[in-house]
């Protein structure tokens, strides 16, 4: 289709006028209406931008001033294009704690001034899946992993949290922001994984991967008091970390893992395997190190499809349980932290202000300086 020059000039004028209107609105905003927000621009690119502070959109919403956030491997998956549902232009980040600034008319469980954890998942609490505890599958349009993926997240100064009565949990006065930082995501993931894995005190449990989610999974598996726990990890720094903080846990490297598990188990393999590393090799290792009739829980998020070599598995009669997390145990986790039964603070190895988040990402993504987790503060 061809347009005359006159029509094209009109289109240019309209576009220019729209740009002027947007710019004028930005100029007229008060300084307190603007915030810094780390934003998904396009495949491979995040950028720290100035954005308008979020506002209440629904009576179930809350606005939270973010006091502490973190970077998750899932944020890197968005950056690398492994999360196709992620929306360009959104503020990334789904690991955060903060202070409630404002609530909608129907919010009853939190109030302005409360310190809160923010759940990675948005869930209504009323649909079939929510009522059965499967909140990751909430049927609300924003249900499941929405924050920092499909709606604006928390690597910012403020965040709007839908269904705040479900998505926020008050932090006990004796629990610090750092102690509570991972409750809504990686710690909830570890707790969920340990819960669905049906671990008993007679079991040998193999955890593949000692990254942040792997360590949080380890902390929650330890609550089950199995007979023995084996961690498989290839990073020398992370192996040292496990040996320093969790000396009763057995450690092996991937190339020796199967032989090590056979030597340190009672029935020809691990009774329960939790796969938290998320690579082709680790997926293969998980089912290969499991004893017949074992439970294999897939905790990791993979960058690409995995092969299920059923002929090789024939006769093992394995039970596979797959993600993602149902983050409905945050109140229980906070209580365990308050009781001193879970301590995640050793995982925070680096701290950066929000205006240096680019450097924080560089260190986390490239696993520099022995990084486990990064805390981002305002």
TrEMBL record:
Belongs to the zinc-containing alcohol dehydrogenase family. InterPro entries: ADH-like_N, ADH_Zn_CS, GroES-like_sf, NAD(P)-bd_dom_sf. The chain crosses the membrane at residues 6-28. Its cofactor is Zn(2+). This is Alcohol dehydrogenase. The lineage of its organism: Bacteria, Pseudomonadati, Bacteroidota, Bacteroidia, Bacteroidales. It holds the Pfam family ADH_N. Gene3D superfamilies: Medium-chain alcohol dehydrogenases, catalytic domain, NAD(P)-binding Rossmann-like Domain. Keywords: Membrane, Metal-binding, Oxidoreductase, Transmembrane, Transmembrane helix, Zinc. It comes from the Bacteria. Residues 61-164 form the Alcohol dehydrogenase-like N-terminal domain.
């Amino acid at each position: 289709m061809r347009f005359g020059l006159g029509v094209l000039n009109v289109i240019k004028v309209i576009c220019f006028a729209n740009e002027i209107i947007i710019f004028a609105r930005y100029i007229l905003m008060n300084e307190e209406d603007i915030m810094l927000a780390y934003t998904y621009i396009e495949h491979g690119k995040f950028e720290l931008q100035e954005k308008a502070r979020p506002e209440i959109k629904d009576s179930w919403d809350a606005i939270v001033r973010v006091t502490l956030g973190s970077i998750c491997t899932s944020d890197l998956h968005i950056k690398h294009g492994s999360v196709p549902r992620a929306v360009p232009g959104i503020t990334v980040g789904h690991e955060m704690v903060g202070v409630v600034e404002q609530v909608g008319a129907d919010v009853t469980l939190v109030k302005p001034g409360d310190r809160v954890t923010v759940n990675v998942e948005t869930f209504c609490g009323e649909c079939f899946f929510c009522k059965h505890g499967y909140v990751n599958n909430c049927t609300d349009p924003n249900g499941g992993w929405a924050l920092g993926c499909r709606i604006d997240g928390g690597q910012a100064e403020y965040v709007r949290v839908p269904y705040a009565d479900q998505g926020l949990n008050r932090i006990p006065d004796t629990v610090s922001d750092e102690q509570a930082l991972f409750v809504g995501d990686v710690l909830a993931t570890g707790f969920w994984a340990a819960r669905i894995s049906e671990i008993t005190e007679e079991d040998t449990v193999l955890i593949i991967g000692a990254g942040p989610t792997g360590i949080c999974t380890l902390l929650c598996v330890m609550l089950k008091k199995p007979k023995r726990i084996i961690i498989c990890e290839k990073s020398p720094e992370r192996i040292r970390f496990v040996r320093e903080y969790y000396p009763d846990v057995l450690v092996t490297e991937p190339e020796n893992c199967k032989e090590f598990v056979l030597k340190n188990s009672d029935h020809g393999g691990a009774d329960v395997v939790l796969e938290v590393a998320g690579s082709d090799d680790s997926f293969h290792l998980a089912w290969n190190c499991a004893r017949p009739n074992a439970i294999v829980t897939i905790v990791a998020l993979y960058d690409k499809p995995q092969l299920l070599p059923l002929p090789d598995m024939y006769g093992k009669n394995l039970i596979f349980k797959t993600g993602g997390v149902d983050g409905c145990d945050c109140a229980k986790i906070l209580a365990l932290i308050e009781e001193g039964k879970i301590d995640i603070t050793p995982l925070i190895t680096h701290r950066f202000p929000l205006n240096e988040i680019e450097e924080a990402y560089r260190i986390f993504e490239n696993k520099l300086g022995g990084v486990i987790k990064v805390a981002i503060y305002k």
